[in-house]
């Protein structure tokens, strides 16, 4: 059994589910004035932390070239968030296969090993994808598909 390949597949599946939200989100929902947590910001947040926790440690992290603080800058567009998602997918493909799953997480605030960090990271992506699935389903009656596995 190739644990790294299984982890990679589940990362890509979770990211594919998040991608469905971004692609199918109507413009009016992307930055809806009444939302405390804007859809674009939640999607970007999930991607930012997925990207961060794929790295060996905090010191090795290089922010995406278009990154800016979402609280102080302009909202990211759907196209920009999709571009970042594609970047994170490439990071998953490049990095997960090389992970030493028994090593420490690399992040002092996450006191577990790299294997648990991958589960933690995938659950984080999926939590926000689920939240956004619910938002689009409830408000816009948009049905999105479940993605069980996604080989690279």
Folded structure, characterized:
The protein has 152 residues and is an all-alpha fold. The chain has a single domain (3-56, 73-140), classed as Four Helix Bundle (Hemerythrin (Met), subunit A), CATH 1.20.120.450. The protein has helices spanning 3-24, 27-30, 39-53, 78-95, 114-140. The mean pLDDT is 95.
Quick overview of this protein structure:
With 152 residues, the protein is an all-alpha fold. The chain contains 5 helices and no strands.
Number of helices: 5
CATH fold assignment = Four Helix Bundle (Hemerythrin (Met), subunit A)
Please, how many domains? 1
The fraction of residues in strands falls at: under 5%
Distance between the termini: 16 Å
* CATH architecture type: Up-down Bundle
Low-confidence stretches: none
Order of helices and strands: HHHHH
Mean pLDDT: 95
Structure summary, number of beta strands: 0
Task: Please name the defining characteristics of this protein.
152 residues, mainly alpha, Four Helix Bundle (Hemerythrin (Met), subunit A), 57% helix, 0% strand
Set down the secondary structure blueprint.
Elements: H1 3-24, H2 27-30, H3 39-53, H4 78-95, H5 114-140
